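Good morning C.,

I know you're traveling, so I'll keep this short. The sequence:
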Amino acid sequence: MKADELWKRFTKKYPDYKEETYEAWSYGAAEDKLADLTLKGIKTATTSGYALYEAEGEPVPKEGDFSVILDGQDQAVCIIRTTKVYVQPFSEASERHAYKEGEGDRTLAYWRDVHIEFFETFYQEAGIPFNEDALMVYEEFEKVFPDGGTE
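The tokens, ready to paste straight into the viewer:
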């Protein structure tokens, strides 16, 4: 299903959100796996590079934003709503945030290992140096659709 189709189903069930806008996107790595963790409500946070938003001229997410999460084939999996956004250095990521990301064994050590590798690659492709002082956008969210009821 395409993002606009899932959004139509959501706003049919929840017409109060009909005038809202959304972004459709997939995770930067392991798209299918991370989309599935989001659908299951295990993944309730993500991290992105602040400098990458600047380089691409994209706005930083903000509280209340809606997103349609896509899998690796650009198929809509679920809709999330951002509940919290904060910017701080990579080195200040917390155990709590790592756990909310829902990946691997959910520890900060695991999170750091996979995210250092990920950000080194993406920053290099963008021609931006990456180090642990780099500012990150830490985002928390809740899955709002499907919500377990009849869709």
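Safe travels,
E.
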